[in-house]
Amino acid sequence: MNNINDVVFSGDYDKKKPCSSSWISSMLFRRITLVFLVAVSCLGNCDSDDLESVLRAASMKDKTVILTSVNIAMAKPGFVLDVFLESFKIGNNTKKLLNHLVIITLDQKAYARCLAIHPHCFALKIQGLDLSSEAFFMTPIYLEVVWAKIHILATVLQKGYNFVFTDADVMWVRDPFPHFYEDADFCITSDAYYGNPSDRKNLPNSGFMYVKSNQRTMKFYKYWYSSRKTFPGLNDQDVFNKIKYDPFTAKLGLQMKYLDTAYFGGFCEFSKDFNKVCTMHANCCIGMERKIHDLKMVLEDWRRFMLNTTNLKPSSSFTWRAPEKCR
Ligand SMILES: *[C@@H]1O[C@H](CO)[C@@H](O)[C@H](O)[C@H]1NC(C)=O
Ligand SMILES: *[C@@H]1O[C@H](CO)[C@@H](O)[C@H](O)[C@H]1NC(C)=O
């Protein structure tokens, strides 16, 4: 078990000599992470065919899929998953996108609920971990979930699929695809957007990203995932912020662009113009109940907007009432 990550990825990032001077501390570290790594490595082998067939069934013509992940705390009737699916149904031309959405479930109950309401479900199994409760921000379980997410996204790229990954607390009210940058490998939303899509000072939010499958993105995702070891205890987004200036990332030639909050807004920074908004994310908000309350308000606001023809003009200054509890 010297090179666990080689099992996980068959990658070329972890070809360090196993018996280096830090062998003992690294063995201690490995013992802690062993359960996780072994379980996820199984994913690459054991569940690979399952994943492949779910992706194939959900894929657009150009091999693009939309992915989200939920546990039962989110997938219970009336909770985040239902609000998420509702947004596609009341959004403008977004209903058809549901045909391309794969819901990745983190526990058995969430999988059962998914099967009951949606055609494309994939059960992600992380052995030895119960992922069914609300994963509070930055707890060990939360970290396992976000890193498992990066791992599965890496696998999807390796299988040749482009993807939009969306957290389930992102409301889709317009088709976002026309607003992705043609020349970018990787588009990510922003908690704060400073006006230039290439400016790496924009604050990224990994809760919504569009990624094309190619050599650069495959290598970047492997690197991102393996950087968990370099920065133990950080989540995917914090590690992303560490490695985005990295020489390795620069050398890959990865074209990374930030999406404008005018189209891809959230509670951190709003999409003010209802004639532009594509997605609204309940970011800058902790706590499932508060999120659900305010996301339902977002959908109410959208309905009011769509119902009143006065609003459907570029000059309309229709405004959001949400958020109320997420302030
Ligand atoms: C909805 O989509 C149609 C077709 O793309 C477009 O013509 C219309 O302006 C859109 N309405 C809104 C409110 O965005
Ligand atoms: C439609 O919106 C306009 C402008 O926001 C508002 O003045 C008007 O009362 C609304 N009409 C209805 C029927 O809600």
From TrEMBL:
Its main location: Golgi. Belongs to the glycosyltransferase 77 family. It is a single-pass type II membrane protein. Keywords: Cell wall biogenesis/degradation, Glycosyltransferase, Golgi apparatus, Signal, Signal-anchor, Transferase, Transmembrane. This is Glycosyltransferase. Residues 97-295 form the Nucleotide-diphospho-sugar transferase domain. The keyword Signal applies. InterPro entries: At1g28695/At4g15970-like, Nucl-diP-sugar_transferase, Nucleotide-diphossugar_trans. Pfam families: Nucleotid_trans. Gene3D superfamilies: Spore Coat Polysaccharide Biosynthesis Protein SpsA, Chain A. Its EC number is 2.4.2.-. The keyword Transmembrane applies. Residues 1-48 form the signal peptide. It is found in: Golgi apparatus membrane.
